[in-house]
Amino acid sequence: MFESQIAPTYHLEPSEEQESDFILNLGPQHPGTHGVLRVILHMDGEYILTADPVLGYGHRMQEKIAENMTWAQVLPYMARMDYLSALSYNQAWVCLVEKMCGYEVPPRAEYIRVLTTELNRISSHLLWFGAFLLDLGAFTPFLHAFEDREKLLDLLETITGSRLTYCFFRFGGVGADVDATFLRETQEFLDQMRAHLPGYHELVTGNVIFEHRTKNVGVILPFDTSGYGLSGPVLRGSGEAYDVRVKEPYSIYPELKFNVPVEQTGDCMGRYLVRLAEIDESLNMIDQILANIPDGDIQAKVPKIIKPPEGEASMAVETPRGELMIYAVSDGTKIPYRVKYRVPSFANLSIFSKMARGQLLADALAILGSLDLVIPEIDR
Amino acid sequence: MSLIETTLQKLDVPAEQLDYAKTGIHARLSITSDQLQKICRTLKAAGFFLETITAVDDLAEGTMRGVWFFDHYSESSRLQIVIESSRDNTVFPTIGMIYPGAVWHERETAEFFDITFEGSKDSRGLLLPLDVTFHPLRKDFKRPKHQIAGIH
Amino acid sequence: MISEITLIRTLLSILGITVVVGVNAIFVVWFERKVAGHMQYRLGPTEVGPAGLLQTVADGLKLVSKQIIFPQSADKPIFILAPIICLVPVFIALVPVPFSATWQAHELDVGLLLVIALGLLNTLGILLAGWGCDNKYALLGASRAVAQILAYKIPLLLCILPIILLSGSFSLREIVLVQEQSTWFALYQPVGFLIYLIAITLETNRSPFDFAEAESELVAGFHTEYSGMMFSLFFLAEYTYMLVASAIAAILFLGGWLGPFLPGPVWMLLKIYFFLFLMMWFRWTFPRVRVDQMLSFGWKILLPISLLNFLITAGVMAAL
């Protein structure tokens, strides 16, 4: 329909850093940045010459907080970084401590962990789906996604006790057991979600305007991925099948059968399709978990006061946004000596200034949306 | 031979293999500052991606350890590079020209630990307000009472 | 010398148009929220008044009672003038619009021309708003509105020209009366009808072509800095403009007030609300088109097709 799908880009010589007098402060309060992200844009009309993200508006120095807490007290802070995938962060922290101390986790607890984490992943992707379409100017998909997400939050609330900032996992187990009602309602949710997913594709994926807004927009070349340390759907949209759940398996992921969705295009459309396919994969995983969940304990015996032996360890998990790696140094006391969070959104946002150069403002916001950023996670 | 072993052979620096099951790290390289950029070039060519850059302030030993983490997309091979330095006037070389994503990690580490990354194009702070004078992750950092010192 | 009857008629017309504009805005905003709600698994307003009908009144009162904030660096006269320039032309544009054979404020021989000309002033209002408040988002929004104006106005006019050829008149009333003799012009001009539909969506700055406001990109576009009553004037102008555009569409293509059984004004309103519903449907379904895509769509696709449509119509008419 349109002559060329690729937006005409502003030609910049790689060497010259063009600046203009027209500086647009995108954020920290802007509907398109989803949180307190600020981007200083030097623009020529609608074209972006340079984009410089300014971070830190939500900075709480989480790493210093962790140095003043016991190992167990750090756990609730996990949900405050990436509030959309709190359970992935829960998992990273408890697995890290279990790894350092050598705790065994009962199989039923591992199943519950993965079950809830995958539900959390779906809810995160659903929110992203809505927010991304909102960035593109479509309002209705947002509420359609929230309709399904609401069920999910209700479901997780019954077992974890909270709707967003979960603190559900424990060292050596989980906080509560699942009952038959929860499992039945999860099954009902699976059926509902499976019935609704084709509707998402009908409403959005095939839409000609959506295609023109996302195809060939914000292309990340495979060449760039390792330089910026990208991970998650942003990376998999560029053709690299890297998923921590597969490459560095933890918990019961080796026992589950699932695919890692990959798109070769590297554009916003690629990242969109990867995330929607991941919802499907998560549904399949939950299916298998529901069929195989073993009986037994949900909590191993662990000491009241946790003192990991002196040394250091790292633990990587796959959050909905990519690879979260926590690196901790213990000096043998009950307080962590040093904790470092390697958060996926941080690396994924660092490529934004490169992607935004020479793009139209509208495309830059589509790109920003397609990266699926959670700003408190970046600012920590 | 696993990817990490071939890479270590190629790098040709003394490496320490760690127990992956207990630490989550495959190998650790303890090197000196002048070797870093060469090693990073080799790693980049081998397809490793930069996970993170950070530092550990070891007050007991009086050292500042710079820590670089690398991993590979095709096979899990977490590589930790450690450079020990003095706690005062710590200087590490930048790897921003090899890994462009490193610039942000370096900016963050620099402002948290008072470390200079030599040769970095961008030495601004990242997460703290631009005018702070303290470095919160240093172990000798004392929390200011009643008011936040350093913010004017 | 103005006769008394003319004077009374004029006053009544002004009163009538004001009532139509006001009631229409109240109803259409409610209608839009209901449509949006039901498209999104929601109910829309339900609390204020029967079925939430008075919600818009409540919102309007709230807006009116709010403080009007003038940005310090705003060009105050332009800032104040902009919403007025947006609203007044669409008010006047209702004058030649016939709601039935007799329900018309004033019959003009060149009614269609007047409506088209007044429609252009809307963009002027947006430009002044964008310029006057000294806000970069507003300026970008205004520049987008100005950039798109030619891209849709020319196809729009080229769709109207065949209608003028068919009817042989610029008078809106005449155009309907001609359709009474033959049939709805939408049947003669299906292509023109479709292009006109796209063009009025563009003209009224409605999604998927709402780049001048573009919430996720430009915060609120040209009216970013407007608050309270000034903002509600823009709001009123938008919904009145939708009414005018839909009325013209109904008159040009669907035979205005013509229809069996029901009285004329009812048919007219039904047709108008059909078009309004279409616009709402677009808005709550589609993502926003990018500006350059819209421009190339306007110049490279809408313009040639509408020109061809016009030439074919002219050729066929000349041959007959």
List the helices and strands and how they pair.
The complex is a heterotrimer of chains A (380), B (152) and C (320).
Chain A: E1 22-26, E2 38-44, E3 47-54, H1 62-66, H2 71-78, H3 86-101, H4 107-135, H5 140-160, E4 169-170, E5 173-174, H6 180-205, H7 208-214, H8 222-228, H9 233-236, H10 244-247, H11 268-292, E6 311-319, E7 322-330, E8 338-342, H12 344-350, H13 352-356, H14 361-370, H15 375-379
Antiparallel strand pairs in A: 1-2, 2-3, 4-5, 6-7, 7-8
Helix pairs in contact in A: 2-3, 3-4, 4-5, 4-11, 4-14, 5-6, 6-11
Chain B: H1 3-11, E1 15-17, H2 20-23, E2 27-31, H3 36-45, E3 48-58, E4 63-72, E5 79-86, E6 90-93, H4 102-113, E7 115-118
Parallel strand pairs in B: 2-5, 6-7
Antiparallel strand pairs in B: 1-2, 3-4, 4-5
Chain C: H1 4-39, H2 55-65, H3 76-93, H4 111-132, H5 136-167, H6 172-181, H7 185-188, H8 190-203, H9 215-218, H10 228-253, H11 264-283, H12 291-319
Written account of the structure:
The complex is a heterotrimer of chains A (380), B (152) and C (320). Chain A contains 15 helices and eight strands. The relative contact order of chain A is 0.19. The model of chain A is unreliable at 1-5 (pLDDT under 50). Chain A has a domain at 76-302: Cytochrome-c3 Hydrogenase, chain B. Helices cover 47% and strands 12% of the residues of chain A. The longest helix of chain A is centred in the first third of the chain and has 29 residues, at 107-135. With 152 residues, chain B is α/β, with parallel strands linked by helices. Chain B has helices at 3-11, 20-23, 36-45, 102-113, and strands spanning 15-17, 27-31, 48-58, 63-72, 79-86, 90-93, 115-118. Chain B is globular, with a radius of gyration of 17 Å. The mean pLDDT of chain B is 84. In chain C, helix 4 runs antiparallel to helix 5 (136-167) and helix 5 (136-167) packs across helix 6. Chain C has one domain (71-319). Chain C is built from twelve helices and no strands. The interface between A and B is large, with 46 and 38 residues.
